[in-house]
Amino acid sequence: MSGNPPRVSIPVSDYAHVQRRQWSTWETEVDEFVDAGDTIVAIGAYRATAKTTGTPVRAAFAHVFTIAGGRVIRLRQFTDTACSCGR
Question: Which CATH number does 26-81 carry?
Answer without folding.
Answer: 3.10.450.50
